[in-house]
Write the structure tokens for this entry.
Amino acid sequence: MSAPQNTDKAPQQAPHIDIHHVARLARIALTEAEATAFAADLDHMLVYFASLGTLDLDGVPPLTEPESGPTLFRPDVAGPVLDRTEALSQAPAHDGAAFIVPRVV
Amino acid sequence: MTAPDPVTLAPLTAQATAIARGDISVTALVDLYLARIDARQPTLNAFRAVDADGARAAAALADARLARGEGPAGRLFGVPIAIKDQLCTRGLVTSAGSRMLEHWRPPYDATAVARLRAEGAIILGKTNQDEFAMGSTSASCAFGPVRNPWDTNHVPGGSSGGSAAAVADFQAAAALGTDTGGSIRQPASFCGLVGIKPTWGRVSRYGAVAYASSLDQIGPIARTTADAALILEIIAGHDPADMGSLRDPVPAYSAIAAAADTMQGLRIGVPAELMGAGNSPDVANAVGEALARCEALGATLVPVNLPHTAFAIQTYYLIAMAEASSNLARYDGLRYGHRAQGDLELEELIAKTRAEAFGPEVKRRILLGTFALSAGYHEAFYGRAQQVRTLIRRDFDAAYTTCDIIACPTSPVTAPRLGEKHDDPLAMYLMDIDTVMSNLAGHCSLSLPIGQDGEGLPIGLQFMAPHLGEARIIAAAAAYEKHHPFEARPTDGGAQ
């Protein structure tokens, strides 16, 4: 199922959330009861959040982080890394060298 | 029942002095705290995990050093501190209040924790909190709700409620919390304590389980401004492990607190938008009286406006939830933490793992954050929120041309009853109106206790300052506290 399209810059009305689509994007399996409850919660919240659409934001840049200075680099020198054994020590499943997970490809 | 020992009632700085003078051994002090924790845990549930063995071992080493005549090492030598469960502590369970990390033991300390240890602090354990720092009550903790020492029918606030409850109940000399939208200041306010949210980047976020990276900060929760100032001085400063970490030198906050005695010449901005009918009568009266005391200490009150206050909650929650949906994507059951059982394909495994281990509030925020970032809606919701964030920052910039700090309530209400507003998440979010704007702007802010409501529940006054303005708010709070100390204490089980 494709995402509902809203190419408007300002949300003039709160959209109705497609909770199953969003849950798939978020990788969370919801029960039907959860889906119903969360859909209602989020629809209610989106009505409130959509009030941002009443503001004139032409020419206002986004503030993506509080302080944006130059990117700071360190010397390209290898340093201490997390020990493999320690990294695997709390893995749900491992073979001593790598994490064991379901087939990816 | 183990009532708090008198030595544990003293500020942290006094306890450090007592140890240095030999009035009490580190082991004896740690044992007093551990006994208090043991006695009060069933009632308040402040702690997630207590490291009694580790604390006693560290205490023994400290006492051995003193016995050898080497003197204390560090400004917090022998002082027992509690750490919010959101912060990594090497080898000690760190769950961020969630089943997802129920058994996880980090392989490293958060930088803030490491700096406390380097100054001789004894880590007592990890405190309970709202799951992944998402909440304002500490009731959405996977390991049970935390209760307020002032009245156990009420919440301690959140998300750093366990840290606040522990300090207010004399189970720790001080604590660390995290603050993304008020999670240090609001529980400090609800529990009669001082809490500081530093300027974004002032304290390294390395080792803080990420909630919303452009908003998160680590800070102290303590009984006095002087205590909070000392902890901030220790944990602040550049850390190459945090790319947002500021390189500016750290002022001597503890000396600033010690020297502060007046508000002469201080201009305190009072924003009309946060002083209105939304505040409970008790909060409004207490804040009004506190501001009058500030004037009596030499401050000038200046009316200011923050015109985009009405959009702050929407802006904060859209940004926080969007960033959280990204940060919490790492919890997939593949490398650490909870993993769902069964013969499952990869995507099924991930979805089921997250369904099983996240609580409802975390799911709600991830879902809304995911929506706000999704195709077709990203620009209308997340994008606009980032633009309104600029307007909020500009509001503060304009206000600070006429004042040095801004004062307002830390919360429009005192601590709600446990379970109140639980069924209305948006009503809970609206309680954060006083605190979120400081996070959005990246500025610093502090809460100090100024009184109690008719039920004896504490009320907090918030001081806000611009970028790297910690010295201003610490000086103001310390001066206020010197002339109007908050001396009320919770009695076990109810309000005094």
DSSP finds three helices and no strands in chain A. Chain A touches chain B through 59 residues (CB under 8 Å). The first helix of chain A runs from residue 19 to 26. The helical segments of chain A are 19-26, 32-49, 84-88.
